[in-house]
Amino acid sequence: MSRGASTPAHFAELFWPPADELAAAAERIRARLGDWPARAAPMRICVAAPEHPAAGDLLIVTAGDAEAEAARAAGVIAAGGAVIAIDERHATLVSGTARHALTAAAQLADDWIAALAAFLDCGFEPHDALVLALAWRDGDEAAAGDPWPVDPARFPSIAGAPAAPEPAFAPCPARLGLYPVVPSADWVERVLDYGARAVQLRLKGVPAGQLADEVARAVAAGRRHPDARVFINDHWRLAIEAGAYGVHLGQEDLQTADLGAIAAAGLRLGLSSHGYYEMLVALRLRPSYLALGPVYATTTKAVAAPPQGLARIARYARLAGRRAPLVAIGGVTAATLPAVIATGVGSVAVVSAVTAAADPRAAVASLGACFEA
Questions:
Q1: Is 190 part of any known ligand binding site?
Q2: Tally of structural domains, the chain
Q3: Shared-domain flag, residues 141 and 55
Q4: Is 233 part of any known ligand binding site?
Q5: Are residues 354 and 313 part of one domain?
Q6: Is 331 annotated as a binding residue?
Q7: Each residue of 47-77: pLDDT tens digit?
Q8: For residue 300, what is the DSSP state?
Q9: How confident is the model over 225-282, as pLDDT tens digits?
């Protein structure tokens, strides 16, 4: 179910204590944001600590009051809610054990809390809604055209995020096109022979003693095709040793991978992202490409993030496409591929659309042709 403009009465229920001006401002902003899937469980934005906190409460405290409000903030978090500590340029969201710290590009808009409510109502997770709220400017809802934030200069930065290594990661083409993700070196050889020129080896459940051989075989297969680009998922050390074209990492790998070693070895780096906050983390590192997803529900990989859908992928592309080549991934089929390409990405990763196809050779040919239309 999707919801377009919400009513003032709807937003009046989402603030504590009741705040008519905030509710009216949130309704004005939400009316300009278009149709989005209705949020399954509405969040209540608390500008004062509630006496009886509940799951779904989002308490906002100023940095100066954070110490005095520490006990009540802890109570909100213990109840399953979250807390945003804010000052003129900084915002920190704490939920459970997760902490998201942001530095705004400019002084916060007077309507940033109303914008936060509007983006939450569009179904965005709190950390992504906060990113958008910090990129919002007063009066955006009255501007001609689409008011959705897309100017990179408006977006906040991630406080404490690692800086990009020097030298920078080697670049990728702006459009990688069809990008099969396959489970073995045999499959790498096959899809390259079928005509694919970008491929990712994602090894799962392979005995440790066989990993190096699989990676080496995949890289060797790429060398037999001068224009091939073979990426290795996760196993960055083996990718460096084998001289792979590139490596693909998830956000969880950023804490352990030696990004400087990857860059120094001349490998390209692809990074996963699942929303605005993770996009900002990834883009700070200046990756060779940025993966956006999952577009649709997928069974080929366990992903904590929900399906993003075409509307979000298109919004992400308008922001991130100015800064890195983009790859959409997750649940894409032959039937949905043209619509995914139309979001503005230059590449689409597919898994079962190739590996589970009755005729993989024909699948690679037909899927690849979609990028030439």
A1: no
A2: 2
A3: yes
A4: yes
A5: yes
A6: yes
A7: 999 999 999 999 999 977 767 788 889 999 9
A8: S
A9: 999 999 999 999 999 999 999 999 999 999 999 999 999 999 999 999 999 999 999 9
